[in-house]
């Protein structure tokens, strides 16, 4: 009996030790390999490809220092943990400024909820604890030079300032969030592009550029500057007419991109085209599965030396009737799709890639306006173009997704069906239990 009790005690102790050791190992592995599954429709709780690319490519250690009350550390922990799960070079530190005011002062944290990234030589503050701001701050830390996007003004281009639906105010915010500086260049005052400009933007000029403006644009690009041209159809309305901008079109033609004087239609609506036909160019190769919505577009043709970025569906057609009063009777079909809508090319450089000017041309401007920039993949498409122009191909990917409002709207009749199907199984189990109890009794 004593021998059996000793064996039983020994086996029990051994099994308990093995069980405890197993729990310790499992917890250690779970701590070091924190994995989760995101089942939301728009992957709200997953980091974007852009974020993963930046974090996994860290060459040195980055410390994210979060300043807040101790009771509020959990508000940032979930998001920051996703970053640290990608790379062990991303460290997290939580500081309560009330308990450690000296460190808060040293980092310049003036309010609760401040997040500052530190790589040992440079610090960047995230304006909010969101993926957009944190990833943007990390991108700013990695960039060595300043990128200045200059928007032309004076020929009816879209303004960078203001909240008007047709303005580029949202585009400006997105650019500044990604560490780009912006400036407006008034070409009528002086047809000259400042030396600080690295990227030129012509956003839907409604009036023809003069010879001096064309010469300034040509000289800027052929000397290695980068430019984006968003054109608009030469529509003629009762109150306003849009010029064809023949001199700019001729200049783009010398750079192997021909802009046609027409207006495109598609099944998505009058003058609206849903774009899913993307090429393998670095700007759009990650856009598959995320369509863009292009409105009021004119078609392009790419020659040798230029590349197609995206095009319309085969169901699209074009009309050369640009008078809005005549279009009310129905557009005439002057050609069937598919049509090229966006193109990219390089200019000059004499074979030296670093000295070449990069050019992007799109036959529409409304798709990047405040009213449409955040619809579908438009914002990603615009920022990908800017990143390619500035040679930041590593940043070209799908941006962090905005939270999606997915409400369930239930009518009164549907509510009762939902109510019955939800509670009927539980009532059935309760009734069966009562019947069994009565029978046993």
Reported for the largest beta sheet, the result is: 8 strands, mixed
Strand content: 15-25%
Please state the average pLDDT score.
Answer: 86
Query: Can you list the strand order of the major beta sheet?
Result: 6-5-7-8-18-17-15-12
Looking at the overall shape, the CATH architecture of the largest domain is 3-Layer(aba) Sandwich
Number of strands: 18
What is the H/E string? HHEHEHEEHEHEEHEHEEEEEEEEHEEHH
Sequence stretches where pLDDT stays below 50 over 5 or more residues: none
* CA gyration radius, whole angstroms: 30 Å
Helix-strand makeup class: alpha/beta
Helix content: 25-40%
**What is the overall number of helices?**
11
What does this structure look like?
This protein has helices at residues 2-32, 49-56, 74-86, 101-107, 131-142, 169-177, 211-222, 246-254, 324-327, 378-389, 412-440, and strands spanning 62-67, 90-95, 114-118, 123-126, 147-153, 180-186, 199-203, 226-230, 257-259, 263-265, 272-275, 277-278, 292-295, 300-302, 306-311, 317-319, 340-347, 357-362. The strands form five sheets. The chain has an eight-stranded mixed β-sheet with strand order 6-5-7-8-18-17-15-12, sandwiched between helices. Strands 2-1-3-4 form a four-stranded mixed β-sheet, with helices on both faces. Strands 9-14 form a two-stranded antiparallel ribbon. By secondary structure, it is α/β, with parallel strands linked by helices. The longest helix has 31 residues, at 2-32. It is globular and about 110 Å long. Helix 2 (49-56) crosses helix 5. It folds into two domains: 49-141, Glutaredoxin, CATH 3.40.30; 153-389, 3-Layer(aba) Sandwich (Rossmann fold). The chain contains eleven helices and 18 strands. The chain is 33% helix and 20% strand.
